Amino acid sequence: MERTLELIAIKDIRPGLKNLNVIFIVLEVGHPTVTKENREVRTCKVADATASINVSIWDEPGKLIAPGDIICLTKGYASVWRNCLTLYSGKNGDIQKIGSAQAQSVTPVQQNSVSSSKVPSGNTRFSSETSGNGKPKTSQRGKGASRSGPRGERR
């Protein structure tokens, strides 16, 4: 079974955009940062044929992604974190490995002239429960609790 997605090129991603579907290749996977809630988050550098961007990957999916993986992120959103445009998986979003650059002799996905693409299902799927804003579910902050960013750092 195949599904049709409206894909966006990384060069067209702007802060505040939501419900983004992007296919990219993983260039670098950052070291994990452990939050106060004992969750791991990694910042990955990814790219398509048009540009590169940081992607924030939480928990188990971050352990499974490696440089060279071709990933389809669905229902994501873009925001600025520490002066860098960053892509996040949304509440009902999905991060799915659809291929590997080492296993294929292809160049990164050409999206300049592509408005939609068929993505095969049944590939490796990474998912993590989120709170609706693409960030993992955490307990509510109590009075006097510190406000922290996606990596647990104080803002």
Explained architecture:
By secondary structure, the chain is mainly beta. It has one domain: Beta Barrel (OB fold (Dihydrolipoamide Acetyltransferase, E2P)), CATH 2.40.50.140. It is built from one helix and nine strands, in the order βββββαββββ. The strands form two sheets. Strands 2-4-5-7-6 form a five-stranded mixed beta barrel. The chain has a two-stranded antiparallel sheet with strand order 1-8. The protein is globular and about 35 Å long. The termini are far apart. About 30% of the residues have low confidence. One of its GO terms (molecular function) is DNA binding.
List keywords for this structure.
155 residues, mainly beta, OB fold (Dihydrolipoamide Acetyltransferase, E2P), five-stranded mixed β-barrel, two-stranded antiparallel ribbon, 1 helix, 9 strands, SOSS-B, DNA binding, DNA-binding
Give the secondary structure arrangement, pairings included.
Blueprint: E1 2-6, E2 20-29, E3 33-34, E4 40-47, E5 52-58, H1 60-64, E6 69-81, E7 84-100, E8 116-120, E9 124-126
Parallel strand pairs: 5-7
Antiparallel strand pairs: 1-8, 2-4, 2-6, 3-4, 4-5, 6-7, 7-9
Order of strands across the biggest sheet? 2-4-5-7-6
| Arithmetic mean of pLDDT | 75
CATH class: Mainly Beta
Percentage of residues in DSSP E strands: over 45%
The coarse overall form would be globular
Number of strands: 9
Q: What order do the SSEs take from the amino end to the carboxyl end, as H and E? A: EEEEEHEEEE
The CATH superfamily appears as Nucleic acid-binding proteins
Low-confidence stretches: 104-149
Number of helices: 1
For the biggest sheet, the summary is:
5 strands, mixed, barrel
CATH architectural name:
Beta Barrel
* Total domains: 1
Helix content: under 10%
Overall structural class, as computed from helix and strand content, comes to mainly beta
Keywords: DNA-binding
Region (Disordered): 104-155
GO molecular function: DNA binding
Biased composition (Polar residues): 104-141
